[in-house]
Design a protein that fits this description.
Length: about 375
């Protein structure tokens, strides 16, 4: 198959979950003798035209000049280029800034969209923007040839909201069992004597809720806060907690080996995400044998089941910090590790994508397919 992957800032990953997935899936598909292309922003630091057997197409991305509106132009540039490539499959990752251009996708390509999460629910957006994103979600849902839901919750939502079937494929992770505590010296922490949280600095990821709980708790154990905090909300949080010594804003780190070791040696790993499906960082925490405290919602429970501590407010975060130790809950850790091995390992996930693409190829006749 000739596969084009759109909707990310590019590979290798320097940004987030979709980029991580695109890197893993694209390189895997290429290793299985498929012809794979990934679209990269021209601002991406990787400037070569190939990466581990994957062809890289650099497209102009003016987001750094004009802000969010630049995402729409970048997506348009990628879609226009895809019209020249004769792809069998276009994998569209997300829809927020691409839906307005859906009618421009090449007619003969089969467009498969991973619907991601409920973007229109993100509180950082104004009411008009939320309405626009809900419209974009509808466009992607109704105009794609096939839909992928990364969680059972999203699959159910698409059925209830639009009466549309979607194919459930989660994200994946690689099991980590090769710890090296020398990494900890970079962050001036000791094994199992620190906690951590990793997320984009957005209100719905509940970083503030967790840090409020940390500030109110009796523990002196530091918490490392990972993510790009050079944002308006990041500045707000840094100002709010500047005098709390046990709260350390580390910044964004994308080196998977460093992150795996940090998760492995942490006492508690907090996961506050509330909007979206199966979050990649959550699976990686499970795979890294972290003890997880997660926000209590259907997306997180669907993945973790009973193998986590759950919170809905800062008081519950405080109580978890005051009472929970990793050494007392190793069975939860092992259960999550095994769940990754059996249900969420990357090879299984990648194979599921390729199998679904083959099914789509069999279902659609590219020579007669219309939009």
């Amino acid at each position: 198959m000739k596969i084009g992957i759109l909707g990310t800032r590019g590979i290798p990953n320097y940004y987030g979950g979709f980029e991580q997935f695109a890197e893993y899936f694209a390189t895997y598909a290429a290793s299985q003798d498929h012809e794979v292309y990934v679209y990269n922003s021209h601002k991406h630091p990787y400037k070569k035209t190939s990466f581990k057997g994957v062809s890289i197409i650099h497209c102009y991305d003016p987001e750094y000049v004009i802000g969010t509106a630049g995402q729409y132009i970048y997506d348009l540039n990628c879609i226009l280029d895809s019209r020249k490539r004769d792809f069998d499959i276009i994998l569209q990752l997300g829809y927020t800034s691409s839906s307005v251009w859906f009618g421009l996708h090449p007619k003969r390509a089969i467009v498969v969209t991973n619907m991601d999460g409920l973007e229109w629910k993100r509180t950082k957006y104004s009411k008009p923007i939320q309405k626009l994103l809900l419209w974009a979600e509808k466009q992607a849902a109704q105009k794609s040839d096939a839909l992928i839901a990364d969680s059972l919750g999203i699959q159910s939502y698409l059925k209830q909201k639009y009466n549309l079937k979607s194919h459930y494929i989660a994200y994946g992770a690689y099991n980590f069992n090769d710890p090296n505590q020398e990494v900890l010296s970079l962050f001036k922490v000791e094994p199992y004597k620190y906690n951590m949280i990793m997320a984009r600095f957005e209100p719905e990821n509940n970083i503030e809720m967790v840090l409020d709980g940390v500030m109110a708790s009796e523990v002196t154990t530091p918490i490392l806060v990972f993510g790009n905090h050079d944002t308006k909300f990041g500045t707000y949080l840094k100002n709010k907690f500047r005098s709390v010594e046990k709260i350390r804003f580390v910044g964004a780190i994308y080196d998977i080996k460093i992150l795996n070791n940090l998760r492995y040696f942490s006492n508690l790993y907090f996961h506050g995400h509330t909007v979206g499906g199966t979050n990649p960082s959550l699976l990686e925490a499970m795979a890294s044998q972290a003890l997880i405290a997660a926000h209590n919602n259907e997306f997180n429970r669907g993945v973790l089941q009973e193998n986590a501590f759950y919170f809905t407010n800062s008081e519950e975060v405080k109580n978890i910090l005051n009472t929970v130790k990793k050494s007392d809950n190793l069975q939860q850790v092992q259960n999550n590790f095994e769940r990754i091995r059996k249900n969420f390992n990357w090879n299984t996930i990648n194979d599921q994508y390729l199998q679904f693409f083959e099914e789509c190829m069999a279902r659609f006749d590219r020579n007669t397919k219309g939009k």
